Automatic annotation (TrEMBL):
Similarity annotation: Belongs to the acyl coenzyme A hydrolase family.
Top-level taxon in the UniProt lineage: Bacteria
Biased composition (Low complexity): 145-158
Positions of the UniProt region annotated as Disordered: 122-158
This protein's UniProt keywords: Hydrolase
PROSITE patterns noted in UniProt: HOTDOG_ACOT
Annotated source species: Halovulum marinum
Protein's name according to its UniProt entry: Acyl-CoA thioesterase
Listed InterPro entries: Cytosol_ACT (IPR040170), HOTDOG_ACOT (IPR033120), HotDog_dom_sf (IPR029069), Thioestr_dom (IPR006683)
GO biological process assignments: acyl-CoA metabolic process; fatty acid catabolic process
PANTHER family: ACYL COENZYME A THIOESTER HYDROLASE (PTHR11049), ACYL-COA THIOESTER HYDROLASE YCIA (PTHR11049:SF5)
Biased composition (Pro residues): 128-144
Length: 158
């Protein structure tokens, strides 16, 4: 699927408005600003799962599909890919609502890795998930209905 035909995947974790102060030399929104918004949005999911402080330790496979324009409503969607002993891998998508037709467009995606940390900044174990909060990840539905999504279990990323 192309970025324009997908639907957002994950929970809406942050929404903001792209403003002129955040533009690059070409007049589009600066990629660093967008990356910061993605970090904030994915940290909402990470903090909920960790029930406390987290630190971003890596950003994997960031892809910019389309520019973000001034006035776009920027929506960050996050979903848990893996939860290990201390760390979490979170898929993050950015979709914008373009005016005047309110068209939804996928503009960026990346995978963020967080580690749960104590109040002193030391790595700590993730607590057991609470019921009705952030579930530990389930495999994506297979693209081939005959394949077994559980045949390759998720390994601990720690």
């Amino acid at each position: 699927m192309t970025p324009d035909t997908d639907a957002p995947r994950g929970a809406l974790t942050l929404q903001t408005l792209a403003m002129p102060a955040d533009t690059n030399a070409n007049g589009d929104i600066f990629g660093g600003w967008l990356m910061a918004q993605m970090d904030l949005g994915s940290s909402v999911l990470a903090r909920t799962r960790a029930r406390g402080r987290v630190a971003t330790v890596a950003v994997e496979a960031m892809t910019f599909h389309r520019p973000v324009r001034v006035g776009d409503v920027v929506s960050i969607y996050s979903r848990m890919l893996r939860a290990g002993t201390t760390s979490m891998q979170i898929a993050t998508e950015v979709w914008v609502t373009r005016q005047p037709d309110a068209r939804l467009v996928k503009v960026t995606e990346a995978t963020f890795v967080f580690v749960a940390v104590s109040d002193t900044g030391d790595k700590r174990r993730l607590p057991e998930p609470l019921p009705d909060t952030v579930p530990d990840p389930l495999p994506d539905p297979p693209s081939d209905p005959l394949s077994d999504p559980l045949s390759d279990p998720l390994s601990d990323p720690d």
